[in-house]
Amino acid sequence: MESISSNFIGLFKEPSNFHETTISAPSSDDSEITPVWCYLYCERKEQTLSMVTAANKCHCGHTTDQFRLNNTLESKSNPVIRSDTVAVWRTAVQDFRCDLRIFLPPQTSEKIFLRSLPGSGNTWLRYLIESATGVFTGSVYNDQVLASGGFLGEFDHVSSGRTSVIKAHAVGKSNSKNIVLIRNPFDAILAEYTRRRSHSHTGLGNIKIFDTPDWTQSVKSFAKNWLSRNIAYLKSVNSSLLLVVYYEDVKEDHVRELRRIVDFAGFKVNNLEERLLCLQLESTGLFKRPSKKDDFNPYSRDHVKLINDIIATLRSYIEKDAKSLSPLPNYEKQL
């Protein structure tokens, strides 16, 4: 059980059509049907999910319209499987339903910019948008590392009309649609600083890099830039051409936020539902920075006060001058 505990998704109510939409393992001595046995069996069957019922039966399958892995009843890695429930593990098999990506014919797509400050999760959101739409995203930066990692639209000209959204950090006034991605500045500053110091899109910082005057100066500079740039983004286009997406909302429910993006952009996706089902499992990609597991806090009391102040300023601007936008999340830290 310890070997697969990290792959446990949760305990769910058994769907009504469960037996018709899954592969059942052959009948055997009940003592042999353990979660580990079922997990290995489903991997051999090239299924993304292994599931054990209260009747100690093994089933294999994928996410479906009727089984979306929502409403987890229990998330402990060694659950007590009650009647009419099923315990679900994620196998190592990749779900290819959201894997295929293409370029659109030239001049098919209008310009839609994906703007954010560095460190806000722009690259990860691009991965999600590509997976949901099946269309490559573009960029104004021609980043060879990202292109080598599968973002083939990185070197496509921004006026080609062949990509879905176009990554840009700079403020640009235009009549184009803009998706603005905003992230908690405490996390965005930390992510961008460690990226610069590690020279990697997924780098994690060593504790020593924060015990320097450079860190303190960077906090002041990044905080000022976070406030001024986000306000400039919100002012740059008419509200009807603007969609604000909060990184934390994407993290909480990326399927919901991707629906918002697809609707706002007007993307026509024939197999959107299949792709969103796939993204319930394939939601990270190569460039999603892993979470730090320790409790280390690099921010001093003065840093926290400074960042709390700029958060309050942006919140005040949204409440007074951009009332149509969703409220800013509670980003402040306690002093």
UniProtKB/TrEMBL annotation:
Domain Sulfotransferase residues, every copy: 170-274
EC main group: transferase
EC number: 2.8.2.-
A Pfam cross-reference name: Sulfotransfer_1
Keyword Phosphoprotein: no
Keywords recorded for this protein, A-Z: Transferase
Entry's family note: Belongs to the WSCD family. Belongs to the sulfotransferase 1 family.
The protein's name: Sulfotransferase
Naturally occurring in which organism (per UniProt): Clavelina lepadiformis (Light-bulb sea squirt)
